[in-house]
Amino acid sequence: METLTTSSGRWLRRLAAAAFVAMPALTLWNLAVPSRAVRIGPGLVGVTQEVPFDLSLRGFVDGALQKAAALRIADAMPLRRTLIRLNNQIAYSLFGEITAPGVLVGRDGELVQRSYLEEYCSRAIGQADTMADAAIPLLRDIQAYYRDRGKLFLYIVTPSKVADMPDKFTHLIACPSSPQARAELVPAYVARLRAAGIDVLDLATATHAMRSDATAPFPRSGIHWNDLAMARGSRQIVDAINAQAGRELLPPFSFSATVSRPAEGRDRDLAELANLLVAPIDYPTPKLTYSHPPCAGREATRIDAALVGTSFIDPVSEVLTEQACLTRLGQYFYLKLGRSRGGVRQNQLSEAELRQVRDVDLMLLEENESLIGRQAYLSLLHRIVTAP
Questions:
Q1: What's the count of helices (H) and strands (E) in the chain, helices before strands?
Q2: Would you call 54 exposed, middle or buried from its count of C-beta atoms within 10 A (0-12, 13-18, 19+)?
Q3: Is residue 187 domain-shared with residue 324, that is, in the same domain?
Q4: Domain boundaries, position 251
Q5: Cα separation, 160 vs 264, whole angstroms
Q6: Are 47 and 64 in contact (CB under 8 A)?
């Protein structure tokens, strides 16, 4: 037995020595041949800015060169991914903290991005009127541009997770706004727009009304609405478009839902961003099966449509394209950042490409309730359609 113990200890020491020698060697290899780098563990989620080398004397004196070199060496370490995830896991498991910038842990393990919570907690009485005063002239001109040409226009407000379940998050930061100010912002804003003649679809209020359902509209470790809430919203969009057209322009679709776990895709986006060893994704989410009439020969397939909005509208674009037969729909991400059409993604659109929205038959403009009336693309779209 003593011989076996000694033998095992010898092999462990040899293994440790081999690892001690291998890690620096593999780090040098990764620096020299980054295209064939050796990495241990799954990749990290999130965007990092690569610091450029400043080979000047100034770069050496102010430390920029040394900082860039240190970051490159650290990134080349084979175990970096695993060590980062281990560190994050310890912080989460022992202290309930997420180290990803801007991600907070609320009650019952609900994750949220800080920016949404800060917006919710800063809502004030009368703020809806200020926002509406700024947005109405822009929306009125945009809507008039399309309507005057016999086209369709619909403005859509999508929901925020914090507004849907404020009790999970408002204790995390100073939250001076009153419950009345938080609750009235979207309804008051929408009412002002409707009074001004803007065709508005308030999916935020409609989604928050789903709170009585067995499945909440937002996943525990996700920031976007789940498939069920999104599909219900998409169906309301179809109904609103058909009501404007005065006929069944887009075919109706139906769906059935089943509960699935663990969470996948968009239902776990914040959990992925946390970069843990074991992501908190073992919770139920709805998965849908759609049915709709065949698209062949339908008028919807001949409609040039544009959907301008935020990341909340990504899955809506898929549903409208595949289920409502809007096969020529172009989705514009924050208008100028990119366009997806026919399964092709194009980034950083030119001015000429942006001007193509002037010629569409159907314009859908979406803003999330966390930034209603304040999105830069609202002014940009206004400039595009009002320019000579």
A1: 14, 11
A2: middle
A3: yes
A4: 107-386
A5: 20
A6: no
